[in-house]
Design a protein that fits this description.
heterodimer; A: alpha/beta; 8-stranded mixed beta sheet; 4-stranded antiparallel beta sheet; 12 helices; globular; B: alpha/beta
């Protein structure tokens, strides 16, 4: 089956007074139909810019400089602003971290959702619109939906606002939902409710999701597949169970070792990743993670590594996986040597 | 170090209400009591709006307590004037959540870290002050070159190091950490947590650690208190609270935490928590959690449960647990 979204060698830059920020530097991935792809990364990794590039929401300073983005086989990069407006909302919908900034504080919630429906279907009458909005509020489990239609955004809690955003996003039955840190600003109990809601709605509607987050726990709960981004590049991509079982990139390993889980032995020190993320105006010549990588070799500083296939349907960008990489002190070769 | 079993901080029936207009009040902190042993860490958890930060700010007297007492090293500091409080301020310092907002953008790192020294007239000369600042910067993993720079030149993790240097330069005994890592990237959080732990081990610091990341709180704390709508609903050893949570709210909160294990995450059947936090202006009658509690009975809506010792060292405020 053809993937719903196919991104190939995407490159996006921002022009700033300090120079060109190379936010995304050649990223390729697919989102399979009906599945959830998690894009994991820290601030500055390029994960959000990747999603904004797909939606053509880069503002006046950002620009896709190369690459291809196909939605169900149809190329999006050459589309005009008007054409993209028709695609956004109808075929690709999005939800963001802070629902408050996406809502007009002076308009009742029901009216805002209705307005969005009208935007995509001008023939829809007022009564039908109201009925449809109520149906959407019910779908995202908003308690007392009839009463809530007339409430203003500030009268909703953060979790309820995010439910309304999901309702708006799903109103036109999009083929792809892009969710950028939708639960980061929420409490864990509310995050849990929203993740459960997204899971059940995905089952009901068969929609595909691209879920952007920094939280490995959320990825483990929700995603079928994961792409790990760092320094504008996709470092590792694998199925969810495989990557947690055996991460095959030093950055993924570092991320996993730096978070405590609920069974963490309190006497054992966490293993942080030393240093800080790279400056994307002058990205490192080689692997962007090399300056922080405990296994870095000379080649890592000089050249961006090619992808190595690390198993069924998975790949990593790391010189340690090169056939000629030394086995001594190599976390990816020791096991294999022992097995032989 | 001399052995001292008396708690460094004891909070007794602490209450902080804020006026909300129209004669209404926000019950931010209501009748909270706990103690922290010298050299240990108490983690305070709960959802946003539960009063954990208000509690911290009242303890350090940024907010004036409405009622109740705060004992620092045996002395009641709750009613002292700001002037009388000054010698106690040296003993308690605070690390804030947002290293972007809590550092003055117009001051150099040298000035930021030296400010507490100046407030307490510690140094005899500029040279001595500079030396102390540079020594402190070294201990938080920064160096001499950083002293002349401004906060905006630093990454989030480095800024939080500056915040830690400012808090620790007076060699306080109690440090209140209000969400010190929430604004940091995952790979940086562990750096800061390890730094705080190494200071605790080296100097016997006592921490009140406030966070919403439950797995991090479990990792750093000896004891954990769970707050809900201004009240402490459960308090015990960190291992115990995570292994055997007794309060239905704690149970729900813990089961809401996503676990970084896809196989286990798909197998478990979480209960989670239904609904939203009620308003702290008009908190529910009786047990404040009864509106969201799966085990609530009529009694829970009528009578507020007291925090009682349900098992040795394990305090719970719940009618179902305490009978």
């Amino acid at each position: 089956m053809e993937p719903i979204l196919q991104v190939r060698d995407l490159r996006t830059s921002f022009m700033t007074s300090n120079g060109e920020v190379h936010a995304v530097r050649g990223v390729s991935f697919d989102v399979e139909k009906g599945k959830t792809l998690g894009i994991v990364g820290e601030s500055g990794s390029g994960k959000s810019v990747t999603s904004l590039s797909i939606l053509k929401l880069l503002g006046t300073t950002g620009r896709v400089t190369a690459g291809s983005i196909k939605l169900d086989g149809e190329e999006l990069t050459g589309k005009s602003r008007k054409e993209m407006r028709a695609i956004r909302g109808a075929r690709i919908a999005m939800i963001f971290q802070d629902p408050m900034t996406s809502l007009n504080p002076l308009i009742p919630m029901g009216e805002q959702v209705g307005e969005m429906l009208w935007e995509h279907n001008r023939k829809m009458g007022k009564a039908e619109r109201e009925r449809k909005v109520l149906e959407l509020f019910r779908m995202v489990r908003i308690p007392e939906p009839e009463k809530r239609l007339k409430s203003y955004p500030h009268e909703f809690s953060g979790g309820m606002r995010q439910r309304v955003m999901i309702a708006m996003a799903l109103a036109c039955k999009p083929e792809l939902l892009i969710a950028d840190e939708p639960t980061t600003a929420l409490d864990v109990s509310i995050q849990d409710q929203i993740l459960k809601l997204m899971r059940s709605l995905q089952r009901e509607m068969g929609m595909s999701i691209m879920f952007i987050t920094h939280d490995l726990g959320v990825v483990a709960e929700l995603c079928d597949r994961v792409a790990v981004m760092y320094g504008g590049l996709l470092m590792e991509e694998a199925d969810i169970v495989d990557i947690f079982k055996k991460p095959m990139h030093p950055y993924t390993m570092g991320l996993m070792a730096s978070i405590p889980d609920m069974n963490q032995d309190r006497r054992v020190q966490l293993q942080p990743i030393p240093g800080s993320p790279p400056d994307m105006i002058h990205p490192p010549r080689g692997c962007p993670f090399a300056p922080r990588c405990p296994y870095a070799m000379r080649v890592c500083m000089e050249e961006i590594p090619p992808y190595a296939v690390t198993g069924a349907n998975r790949r990593s960008m790391c010189w340690l996986l090169d056939p000629e990489a030394p086995a001594a002190g190599n976390p990816f070769k020791q096991g294999r040597e022992a097995a032989v | 170090m001399t052995q001292n079993n008396a708690p460094l901080l004891r909070v007794d029936h602490l209450t902080k209400h804020f006026p909300a207009g129209g004669g209404r009040v926000v019950h931010a902190v209501d009748d909270v009591s706990f103690a922290i042993r010298r050299g240990s860490t108490l983690g305070l958890v709960g959802e946003s709006g539960c009063g954990k930060s208000s509690c911290a700010r009242t303890i350090i007297r940024i907010y004036e307590p409405t009622s109740g007492s705060i004992f620092l090293d045996g002395d009641d500091i709750s009613a002292l004037s700001q002037k009388q409080l000054l010698p106690y301020r040296r003993k308690m310092q605070m690390i804030f959540q947002d290293p972007y907002a809590s550092l003055n953008a117009r001051m150099t790192v040298q000035d930021i870290v030296a400010e507490p020294l100046r407030a307490h007239h510690i140094c005899q000369s500029r040279a001595e002050e500079r030396e102390m600042v540079i020594e402190m910067l070294g201990r938080v993993g920064l160096n001499r070159d950083h002293a002349g720079r401004y906060a905006h030149e630093f990454s989030g993790g480095q800024r939080q190091r500056v915040g830690i240097a400012r808090a620790l330069i007076l060699k306080p005994e109690l440090v209140i950490c209000d969400e010190p890592i929430s604004a940091l990237d995952v790979s940086i959080q562990a750096q800061v947590v390890n730094l705080l732990r190494s200071f605790q081990q080296a100097q016997g610091l006592t921490y009140l650690f406030i966070a919403h990341d439950l797995s991090m709180v479990r990792y750093v704390s000896d004891d954990v208190g769970v707050m809900y709508l201004g009240q402490l609903v459960e308090l015990c050893r960190a291992d115990e609270i995570y292994a055997h949570p007794a309060h239905p709210y704690t149970q729900g909160l813990l089961s809401s935490v996503p676990i970084p294990d896809p196989v286990a995450a798909r197998l478990r059947d979480t209960v989670g928590l239904e609904g939203d936090l009620p308003s702290p202006i008009a908190p529910p009658s009786g047990c404040r959690f009864h509106t969201r509690c799966p085990h609530a009975t009529a009694k829970c809506g009528e009578q507020a449960p007291a925090l009682r010792e349900a098992a040795p060292g394990h305090f719970v405020a719940c009618h179902q647990v305490n009978g």
